[in-house]
Amino acid sequence: MKAADFIYHRASDVAEAVRYLEDYDGGARVLAGGQSLAPMLNMRLWRPDALIDINGLGELAEMAADGEETRIGALVRLAAIEDSPLVAERLPLIAAMVRHIGDRQVRNRGTIGGSLVQGDPTGEMPLGCLVLGATLSVTGPAGPRIIAMENFYAGAYAARLEAGELLTEIRFAKHPPHFAFHEFCRRHNDFAVLSVAATGTVSGDGVWRGIHIGLGGVHDTPVMAKDSMAALEGSRLSDADIAAAGTAALDAIEPPGDVRASAQYRAHLVPRYVARALADLRASGKATG
């Protein structure tokens, strides 16, 4: 099947892209990497009136350190993130997670902004940005605004962008000292059945603070395991602490059932994968302690 007819516009700057989006009042789609968009068009799941091509907007394809903050333009390719010394140094969780996205061909074209706006509940970049507390810069007819990653989705595949708004940049605060990531797929580089990302800080006496635990693929959006996080604050991540946190993570999920796994199987995996991630997090603290 081929895409339905649409009008094509190539934007010369952000302002022009916003004007095009406003003109179509929600009837246009942004073309960045096209790795999610093109299949949806060809299956006619989406039939937009127009595509707004932003690939010429070089200002959206930059990465930079800004004090303790790290900024990544929405048009930065996933392969560029994978290969970036800046990301490896300042955002190691993102560097680890991006290698699980598709294959190298997909990462060569796919963009971080496209991944976030697509809002696939199994997506690695939405989960990583959530766990790291990223903020998103968007520009629309009313001007720029900032959206916290935790407030970016209304549901699966439903980013909270108004008609005419364009995601332009992702901003990350200072990365926690320790992290861990685990993902389960039916086959290499397939969509995840579930994924777990964790970060935290450990003191010299082995006490952990500020632990964040995010879950992907087990709700209609990525979610934080807040009960588990609260229970681990001030703990030493003992085996008993980890086991209890894995069980508590079940309160954060409403897993779907699909062709990759049933809801029951996802729920079965969550405590086990949370425990694996937390065990790795503990080990990383000991390795640098």
Helical stretch tally: 11
Strand order of the largest sheet: 4-5-10-6-7
The domain tally reads 3
Quote the beta fraction. 25-35%
Enumerate the spans where pLDDT stays under 50 for 5 or more consecutive residues: none
CATH architectural category of the largest domain: 2-Layer Sandwich
User: Which bin fits the share of residues in helices?
Assistant: 25-40%
Class per helix and strand makeup: alpha+beta
List keywords for this structure.
single chain, 289 residues, alpha+beta, Uridine Diphospho-n-acetylenolpyruvylglucosamine Reductase, domain 2, Uridine Diphospho-n-acetylenolpyruvylglucosamine Reductase, domain 3, Enolase-like, domain 1, 3 domains, 5-stranded antiparallel β-sheet, 4-stranded antiparallel β-sheet, 11 helices, 14 strands, globular
Brief synopsis:
The chain has 289 residues and is an alpha+beta fold. The protein folds into three domains: 7-53, Uridine Diphospho-n-acetylenolpyruvylglucosamine Reductase, domain 2; 58-172, Uridine Diphospho-n-acetylenolpyruvylglucosamine Reductase, domain 3 (2-Layer Sandwich); 178-284, CO dehydrogenase flavoprotein, C-terminal domain (Enolase-like, domain 1), CATH 3.30.390. Helix content is 35%, strand content 26%.
